[in-house]
Design a protein that fits this description.
Order of helices and strands: EHHEEEE
Distance between the termini: 22 Å
Shape: globular
Strand content: 35-45%
Radius of gyration: 11 Å
Largest sheet: 5 strands, mixed
Number of helices: 2
Length: about 70
């Protein structure tokens, strides 16, 4: 997991801070979460269930994390 380089948008950084989500957790979701297509040319990675579910949206074009949600 540590070998994954994650580029974060300013919006993603704000959302992570507001929701108490670490960069390590984002990396884990990308490495181990279920991947599916999201809107507007992005991948969606989902890990966990219920209030502990983490969703990470990553641009297919740039590879940058666009946003992160919890719950």
């Amino acid at each position: 997991i540590g070998a994954i380089a994650v580029r974060l948008s300013a919006h993603a950084i704000r959302q992570m801070a507001a929701r108490g989500i670490s960069q390590a957790l984002v990396k884990q979701a990308i490495a181990q979460g279920a991947r599916s297509h999201a809107n507007k040319g992005a991948w969606k990675y989902v890990m966990g269930k219920g209030k502990n579910r983490i969703t990470v949206i990553v641009s297919k074009r740039t590879g940058k994390v666009i946003t992160v949600t919890k719950g």
